[in-house]
């Protein structure tokens, strides 16, 4: 890989950005490691037979192998230089996350969904490291990161376009009523139940509006602006709701960061091509 | 997976096609009841097949729909038959007390996880007795209700049986 090319379009720089995004993914995957270890004990004690899932997707062994494979291949992707090997371990990582997304014991954890999308981005970048036009690859990678962020926010927003969320009832019941987190504990200390319901309504509407705007616009905004907006959102969500949510948002935080870094020095966002 | 051409990337085009299809699916959900119903069934693990459910898993759906659950020590119908029993009647409020209900709450997404996931699983299964889980998801006037029985079959293992109680796909704004 040449080191004489301009900073923004150097394949080495692209590789380094890819590595850092992989770091975000791996940290996100191990963020709840203590919880996952405890979960593993629960599944060992109380196995479930569910006709809905194929046997191999109920197996605890499958779950363990998939999780360890996702983390190990993520770590390898940070260390490797050779394109072929990098693509190979990224495919393994993506396949492992695919299994985690449909396994009986992990299908509901959005950590694996956001990591899956981020690793798909990594797979595109790693497959393009020797492309003849690194500038174009950088622009494409930046745009793809913004599109993925946009899609995630859109999925979160549209499912809330219903009266139960608009009235604040759902978030009141889930968070404001008794969630043990500094922000909600502080609110309960300061406000009456009626006031909390009003706050919940306001909070809920702000969430819906922000997610909707992000979902509808991040994909077409200049990469740097979209990246910064994505990062702010992905920081704000766990800091104001639940630190465990960093497992969900860290990989997306990495995508936002990549969009910002890859847009540095780009000629113009309107020149970005797919 | 991809070409080395600077102008074309088949892999990238494929990713964009998938993203466009998912975005379209998400955006149509509020106006096409069938899509909302399919998405809610995904949350209840009552999709028409496992493959159809698995295909939907990459669709982002954090905090979608209003989801509630009840963990019960007997199914809902049994309580109704006991209404006339004074033991099940709260004299102070003239209301039937639902002794079958162990725990009820709202949940952010995938209410089916109350039986399948981690801390919820231990909550349901630690007594090693039959448990019934009623999950309800509502979205823009639609409602999906599912009853899941967890039956102990020995060695700490539970057998799950799912029944869709209600699938009201009519739009009632």
Structure description:
The complex is a heterodimer of chains A (274) and B (173). Chain A is mostly helical and 274 residues long. Helix content of chain A is 73%, strand content 1%. Chain A is built from 12 helices and 1 strand. Chain A has helices at 11-30, 33-45, 60-79, 83-102, 110-127, 134-158, 163-166, 169-176, 182-190, 193-217, 223-241, 246-263, and one strand spanning 48-49. In chain A, helix 1 (11-30) packs antiparallel against helix 5 (110-127) and helix 8 crosses helix 10 (193-217). The longest helix of chain A is centred in the middle third of the chain and has 25 residues, at 134-158. Chain A is globular and about 60 Å long. The two termini of chain A are 23 Å apart. Chain B is of the alpha+beta class and 173 residues long. In chain B, 32% of the residues lie in helices and 30% in strands. Chain B has 6 helices and 7 strands, in the order αααβαβββααβββ. In chain B, the strands form 2 sheets. Chain B has a 5-stranded antiparallel beta sheet, covered by helices on one side. In chain B, strands 2-3 form a two-stranded antiparallel ribbon. In chain B, strand 2 and strand 3 (95-96) form a beta hairpin. Chain B is elongated. The termini of chain B are far apart. In chain B, 34% of the residues are buried. Mean pLDDT of chain B is 85; it is low at 1-5. Chains A and B meet through helix 2, strand 1, helix 4, helix 5 and helix 6 of A and helix 1, helix 3, strand 4, helix 5 and helix 6 of B.
């Amino acid at each position: 890989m040449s080191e004489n090319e301009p900073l923004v379009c150097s394949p080495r720089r692209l590789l380094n950005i890819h590595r850092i995004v992989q770091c975000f993914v791996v940290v996100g995957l191990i963020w709840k490691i203590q919880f996952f270890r405890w979960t593993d004990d629960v599944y060992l004690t109380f196995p479930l037979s569910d006709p809905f899932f194929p046997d191999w997707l109920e197996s605890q062994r499958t779950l363990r192998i998939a999780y360890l494979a996702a983390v190990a291949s993520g770590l390898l992707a940070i260390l490797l230089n050779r394109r072929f090997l990098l693509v190979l371990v990224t495919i393994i990582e993506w396949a492992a996350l695919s299994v985690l997304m449909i396994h009986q014991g992990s299908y509901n954890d959005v950590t694996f969904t956001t990591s899956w999308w981020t690793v798909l981005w990594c797979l595109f970048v790693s497959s393009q490291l020797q492309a003849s036009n690194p500038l174009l690859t950088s622009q494409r990678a930046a745009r793809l990161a913004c599109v993925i962020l946009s899609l995630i926010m859109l999925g979160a927003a549209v499912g809330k376009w219903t009266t139960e969320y608009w009235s604040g009832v759902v978030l009141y019941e889930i968070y404001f009523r008794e969630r043990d987190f500094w922000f909600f504990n502080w609110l309960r200390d300061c406000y009456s139940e009626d006031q909390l319901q009003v706050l919940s309504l306001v909070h809920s509407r702000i969430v819906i509006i922000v997610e909707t705007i992000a979902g509808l616009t991040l994909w077409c905004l200049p990469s740097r602006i979209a990246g910064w907006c994505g990062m702010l959102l992905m920081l704000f969500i766990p800091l104001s709701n639940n630190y465990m949510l960093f497992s969900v948002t860290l990989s997306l935080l990495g995508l936002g960061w990549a969009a910002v870094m890859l847009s540095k020095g780009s000629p113009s966002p309107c020149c970005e091509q797919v | 997976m991809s070409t080395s051409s600077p102008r074309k990337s088949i892999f990238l085009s494929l990713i964009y096609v998938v993203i466009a299809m998912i975005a379209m699916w998400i955006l149509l959900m509020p106006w096409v009841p069938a899509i909302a119903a399919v998405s809610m069934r995904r949350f209840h693990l009552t999709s028409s097949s496992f493959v159809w459910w698995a295909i939907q898993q990459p669709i982002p759906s954090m905090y979608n729909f209003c989801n509630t659950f009840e963990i019960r020590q007997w199914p809902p119908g049994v309580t109704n038959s006991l209404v006339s029993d004074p033991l099940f009647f709260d004299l102070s409020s003239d209301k039937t007390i639902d002794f079958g209900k162990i725990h009820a709450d709202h949940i952010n997404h995938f209410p089916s996880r109350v039986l399948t996931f981690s801390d919820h699983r231990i909550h349901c299964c630690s007594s090693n007795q039959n448990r019934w889980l009623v999950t309800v998801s509502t979205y823009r006037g639609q409602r999906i209700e599912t009853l899941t029985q967890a039956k102990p079959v020995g060695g700490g293992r539970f057998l799950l049986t799912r029944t869709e109680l209600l699938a009201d796909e009519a739009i009632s704004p």
